[in-house]
Amino acid sequence: MRNSRPEAGLRSGNPKYGAGVCDFCGEPRPLLWRCRRCGFSVCQVCLSQDQKRFSCNAITWVCPNCLNWETL
To answer: How much is the pTM?
Structure first.
């Protein structure tokens, strides 16, 4: 019997996170946070290094492309 638990990320239909290429640094990463409005993606490394650019409270981040607020 196969595992009935849905897989994480884009495979389960959640466009909020998944693997891919970071739009900020251009590196392929296993975890990207995606803006659900415009599709901009940022990896955890860039989000941590430039936290003041993306977030003011480490719970939400602002997409620099469309200024949409997203939760982590």
So the answer is: 0.73
